Description:
The chain has 393 residues and is of the alpha+beta class. The protein has helices at residues 27-36, 122-134, 147-154, 156-159, 248-289, and strands at residues 310-317, 321-328, 335-343, 350-358, 386-392. It contains five helices and five strands, in the order αααααβββββ. It is elongated.
Amino acid sequence: MKLLLLLGCTGLCWLGGGAIAARAENPAHVRQLLQTNACENCDLSGANLGSLNLTEANLGGANLQGANLSRTLLLRTNLAGTNLREATLAGSSLQGANLQRADLSGATLGNLCGPAELALEPAVCQIVNLIQRLGPELCEADYGLSASLASSILGDEYCQGASATDNVASLTFGWSVGFGLFMHGMNLMGADLRGANLSGLDLQGADLRYAQLADTDLTNTNLAYALLLNAEVSGARNGDFEQAFLQPTDLGRLLSPLLEAYAQYDAYSRGWTYVGSMNRAQQAYQVEYGRFTTELEDLGLGIEPEDEFYRFAIAATTEDYTVQVAIARQPEMTSYLGLVYLVSTQEGPITVAVVCETINPWTQLPEIGPSPATLEEEPTCPEGFEVLSSSIE
């Protein structure tokens, strides 16, 4: 399984247009900003400026306390001396922005793990964020990832710079979701943060490459997995850089275990994914030939009879059902069994498939029950197995 990424959004996605400013204490200042792209020392507190393109705007000294700047483009924007306390900046891009002496204390910057309902592992978010930020650059020797690991997880084509547009992020430990669903770390690449107040902010996974942080207040700032390659951090106050990436080798050292964990998961997941594929192939084979096959090669899936973790086989085939198995080769791993039943209906025969799993080791095929009499009768797994998934063809 290769890691495929949906890279339709480069950097942070911008949902442009249409945002109407509201709740500002001085609406005239909002109109000035929208008309001229400049509003020095303006009162924009509480303003809704979300999803606007404020690239290279001049907002020096402005009061933006409590303002909504979610998904706003602030590329190379002058925010020197601004009050951004309690502002919302989730999904905004501040690449190259001038934030000298700006106060961001209490601001909301979003989080790295995306919508809560996805319940994604933090490691997943970290990996996807880092790969999205650095791209094929991660394959370079400076990052300390072994060639085999980079190739097996990222893919040879990705390491050679091939575009991954229109693909799907599959590095989700069981999820398959669009890349745009992830919330990525704040983009502060090249930002001038000298003298800024970043105390207490969650900058986990933020892109701070080439940023200037001299005299920046980083008290209680979360910089875990933040990219600080080529950043000027000398003179930063109270910064905890222990989990940050200051050098490429730091990133490789911390990223390798995460990628290795995914590689292990990838290997383990072959059991249920291969059995599911074998079930579907048997269903297709029955439709085409009017019978189930006894030969693994006939399924045309390219599955080898065994690998380091599993043995794969078509364990039994009758007129009414066929059994596919993935038998774990290590005692702590789960084994899987796939059943495809033939069910008679008024319209003709229909196949019903079920994937079963067991934690307990097994060495001989369990007793298989009869085919369901009707489609309303749920297919069951043998004793000692639990239903993982089912399908009808």
